[in-house]
Hints:
Blueprint: H1 2-22, H2 26-29, H3 35-41, E1 45-48, E2 64-66, H4 67-72, E3 80-81, E4 86-91, E5 113-114, E6 117-122, E7 128-135, E8 142-149, H5 155-161, H6 164-172, E9 179-186, H7 199-203, E10 218-225, H8 228-236, H9 250-259, H10 261-264, E11 270-277, E12 302-303, E13 306-307, H11 318-327, E14 330-337, H12 341-350, E15 354-359, H13 366-378, E16 381-385, E17 392-399, E18 405-407, E19 413-414, E20 422-431, E21 441-447, E22 454-460, E23 482-485, E24 488-491, E25 495-496, E26 502-503, H14 510-514, E27 529-532, E28 535-538, E29 548-549, E30 555-556, E31 562-563, E32 566-567, E33 572-575, E34 578-581, E35 585-586, E36 592-593, E37 611-614, E38 617-620, H15 639-652, H16 661-664, E39 669-673, E40 689-695, E41 701-708, E42 714-719, H17 730-773
Parallel strand pairs: 6-22, 8-9, 8-11, 11-14, 14-15, 39-42
Antiparallel strand pairs: 1-2, 1-3, 4-6, 5-7, 7-20, 9-10, 12-13, 16-19, 16-21, 17-18, 17-20, 21-22, 23-24, 25-26, 27-28, 29-30, 31-32, 33-34, 35-36, 37-38, 40-41, 41-42
Helix pairs in contact: 6-8, 9-11
Amino acid sequence: MDLKLILMSILLGLFCYCNAQKEGNECTDANARYCGKCIQAGAKCGWCKDPDFLKQGETVSSRCDEVQSLVKRGCVEAMIENPKGDKKVLKNKAVTNRKKGAEKLKPEDITQIQPQKLSLTLRSGQPQSFELKFKRAEDYPIDLYYLMDLSYSMKDDLENVKNLGTSLMLEMSKITSDFRIGFGSFVEKTVMPYISTTPAKLLNPCTGDQNCTSPFSYKNVLKLTNDGKRFNTLVGQQHISGNLDSPEGGFDAIMQVAVCGDHIGWRNVTRLLVFSTDAGFHFAGDGKLGGIVLPNDGKCHLENNVYTMSHYYDYPSIAHLVQKLSDNNIQTIFAVTEEFQPVYQELKNLIPKSAVGTLSANSSNVINLIIDAYNSLSSEVILENSKLPEGVTIAYTSRCKNGVVSKGENGRKCSNISIGDEVTFNISVTSKGCPKQGKPETIKIKPLGFTEEVEITLNFICECECHNDAIKNSELCHFGNGTYECGACKCNDGRVGRQCECSSNDVATEDMDRTCRKDNGTDICSNNGECVCGTCECKKRDNPEERYSGQYCECDNFNCDRSGNKLCGGHGSCECRVCVCDPMWTGSACDCSLDNSTCMASNKQMCNGRGKCECGTCKCDDPKFQGPTCETCPTCPGVCAEHKECVQCRAFGTGEKKDKCKEECDDFTLIKVRDRDKLPQPNDASYPVMHCKERDANDCWFYYTFAVNNDTKKEVHVVETLDCPSGPDIIPIVAGVVAGIVLIGLALLLIWKLLMIIHDRREFAKFEKEKMNAKWDTGENPIYKSAVTTVINPKYEGK
Length: 799
């Protein structure tokens, strides 16, 4: 068991060590040799542009460090480059507060999202946040396009849809006063094996005496209109068609509805696409059955409102449809029969802002289905953003109805939003590093299914302000071999050294190495650095606070004397392995205070006149006097009586000082022990110990010791139990008395019995003796008559 604990401790230690290594200083780890790279390393990083900041032996990358560390190392804040990010709201039109029946507004005048445009200036690692407000507007315009499967199995459904226009207009008027409706139909690709290509079947694909229209892929029957009667008229003129296989070509139709905005007549309002079918669907790859291998190009191919490239392009993939529906802000409602509910439910999970409704066998419930699906879709808002530049991340936090707060992926959406409800999103944009181009980028955030969006311009801080003052080919960089920028030289290609004084081809020569050896020794840069261009560049330590410096990297700031486990006692700085003490401190470890005020006794005498003040502490001449000012005498008479009340109140909560114990008795450390044997003995300690025995008001004794330890602190050890005289035990006394009385009674009874036995025996013996000596008269009594009468039978003859 002990071995397991040891192994666990070792593993835990290694884990903590590894974590500590990971959590190093990102600024120094970046090894940045110019300011721009430094500020991209992290949000806390700064660059000291003071030309005289570096010590001898320190590398140029030592200018890059956390701002607090730079200040601590002596760089004035005014000389530190530490740019900050910023945000500016460029367009902030308030969300529309409008009631139904109020003055009619154009769709472009209705605002549901705020702000609309802003600019963010991003510093690497420093997030910029803003609040996005969304309010669902009342009486918002709606465009609804009804896309219907006209294969033969939908014959009875078509009859019910013929009156859909006016009925749906009436129902939707309860939601919005600006409603438009359109109609389109689809069947299948016009190639084998999806349809029969015989001439007769191309004219009438249905069997028997059924009159069907020629097969087609997709047809835009009615552009979006607010004329419900025209919808009824045109839909009433439609005829059923037919195909061979069960899945239909609905995906081709959805793609054309999404991308052919001009033909469909979409406005920048709520766009609903109702997809009605009683069958499954073909998707990308199925076109190979008909010899079609070209992927769908996602473009509009309507001529005379008919899709003309179904035989040329394959069906679109689900991902392609998702992209186009999202790009065009179209919300899809799948109105399908119960048989295909599971299939379209899975499809709905892949297409954001879509819904599935169960269509009755003859589509009689289609109006209620559309109303329910619209309410479901419009009650949820989901934010999406366009593609982000490299290194940029976005975090969402939503604050929905009833104070519900969500983060992560759930932070993108709010549900159960009613008309007029307002929700907010906190959006945080963070950049790591700087994009390769460094140019401004534009991203957009919008609610799925809505045309409104927030346009965000991202500006990146890739260089420091002092970069604008850079001097190319500066004389400060060895006759123009580099750019003097932000207090340091940024060398041209092929040049190295702090002042770019060397060619990279001549760095590792014996002559240059000789100048990096101290006193012509064998160690290059004291084994604490590298010789670069004849000059030592000291290596970095794992701890960014620890540094080598000096001409030969012979100095450091971490190998000075310590006191109290602190470098230079915490009262100075380590410079080249020697402590430089703060004012009023001295000594090799800065552990000797020059302040004598701590030695002043209460009588205003230095060390109470009984010692000398050395390093802020009294050295008492007489060993029996102790304490920081030689005022304490543990073995002097009266010590026990002096501390009696305080010991009593702190140890037992009794005595005269129990009510003011904290105020008057907190000048010593109290340690409780079990019994008197555990009290410190005079020979056990290196300082005098006084043993005390005191009595309290209840005649109880308590024992304690008083001493002043080597740290000049008063220390009291007290036995935790009182030694009280024991009172009479009533029960044993009563029991003893009762027992005594009983025993005495029994003894008296036994004695009486014994005496009676002796008396009786004596009387009996006397009686026996008198009986033997008595002479009785043996004459007969004349009065005596025998009690026996004998009668003889005279007839008895003795036979």
